[in-house]
Write a structure and sequence with these properties.
alpha+beta, globular, 134 residues
Length: 134
């Protein structure tokens, strides 16, 4: 399948290429939210980013400009914030936020706002014991 070939080539891609591929996957997921192959592809990109750096056991990863930032909890990726496009005067919310693979309903203008939303959404899930991926 095409997705498996793309995944096999991820280690040979640059960080900007991976970020771009992740954005395209997210855009495709918006059209087909239940397509498991697309989610598998996005997850593989996330795993490749995390393979390239030593993520913290808990807390946010760092990275180059344009890289997705991952919220880690006990060594597991639980949240992601990624800039979907460059800031301009004409656009507003450019950061996508996800918790456990599920996009939050809003986008954000500032990365710190997106991170706070992910932190709060994950804390709420821990408190209620629910999992949005069910």
């Amino acid at each position: 399948m095409i997705i498996e070939r793309l995944i096999a080539g991820l280690p040979d891609r640059s960080r900007p290429q991976l970020a771009s591929m992740r954005i395209k996957g997210i855009e495709r997921r918006k059209v087909a939210p239940n397509d498991k192959e697309i989610q598998h592809f996005i997850n593989a990109i996330d795993e490749e980013f995390l393979r390239r750096e030593a993520p913290p056991k808990s807390g946010w990863t760092s990275g180059a400009q344009g890289d997705p930032r991952y919220l880690m909890s006990e060594g597991q990726r639980v949240g992601v914030v990624q800039r979907m496009e460059t800031h301009r005067h004409s656009n507003g919310d450019v950061y996508l936020a996800e918790v456990l693979g599920q996009p939050l309903p809003e986008q954000f203008r500032h990365v710190d706002d997106a991170r706070h939303a992910v932190d709060n959404a994950f804390a709420a899930l821990l408190k209620t014991g629910s999992d949005p991926s069910d």
